[in-house]
Amino acid sequence: MTVRLATPAEYAEVGAITVAAYTVDGYLDAERSYADVLRDAADRARQAELWVGVDGEALLGTVTICPTGSSYRELADDADQGEFRMLAVAPHARRHGVARALVNHCVARSRQQGHREIVICSVDTMSSAHTLYESVGFVRAPELDWSPVSDIRLWGYRLLL
């Protein structure tokens, strides 16, 4: 598998993979407005860094890295903090290390950019994501917890670099 920036020709598929990943696990009602945000990979590519994991031509997963100044940053307040969001793996590609490779890429990219830490948030019930983040070295940071809407609770995590 290779991790690279998504191309414009892939944006629609990247958006579909992201929505499918969140929906299949029960974290998203496809009719809810957040589905539109997840589906809009072109906007993420314009305002952040849209990365994909591919095997040949097959898209397996995606992650959005949120650089300083990106409207997609939710937690990172300082230029020496990295942040990523919207980690998603196509349902058929799960359990093959795609998510781990994408997270490791985010960590390597943050190190390359000289960040002191990476901060992320995850829905409180995404236990498999939490297990992955913790296995990479992220630790819970309850001071970063927040709720974008009343029925969603996001847990904060940080990784010191």
Task: Note down, in words, how this protein is organized.
The chain has 161 residues and is α+β, with helices and mostly antiparallel strands. The protein has a single domain (2-160), classed as Gcn5-related N-acetyltransferase (GNAT) (Aminopeptidase, 3-Layer(aba) Sandwich). It is 33% helix and 27% strand. A 7-stranded mixed sheet has the order 1-2-3-4-5-7-6. Helix 1 packs across helix 2. The protein is globular, with a radius of gyration of 14 Å. The mean pLDDT is 94.
Strand order of the largest sheet: 1-2-3-4-5-7-6
Arithmetic mean of pLDDT? 94
Order of helices and strands: EHHHEEEHEHEE
- As residue ranges, the low-confidence spans are none
In the residues, how many domains can be counted? 1
Distance between the termini: 25 Å
Beta content: 25-35%
Q: In CATH terms, what is the fold-level topology?
A: Aminopeptidase
* Number of E-type strands: 7
CA-based gyration radius:
14 Å
Bulk shape: globular
CATH homologous superfamily label: Gcn5-related N-acetyltransferase (GNAT)
Entry summary:
This protein is an alpha+beta fold and 161 residues long. It has helices at residues 11-24, 33-39, 41-47, 98-112, 127-136, and strands at residues 2-5, 49-55, 58-65, 81-89, 117-123, 139-140, 154-160.
Task: Give the topology, please.
Layout: E1 2-5, H1 11-24, H2 33-39, H3 41-47, E2 49-55, E3 58-65, E4 81-89, H4 98-112, E5 117-123, H5 127-136, E6 139-140, E7 154-160
Parallel strand pairs: 4-5
Antiparallel strand pairs: 1-2, 2-3, 3-4, 5-7, 6-7
Keywords:
161 residues, alpha+beta, Aminopeptidase, seven-stranded mixed β-sheet, 5 helices, 7 strands
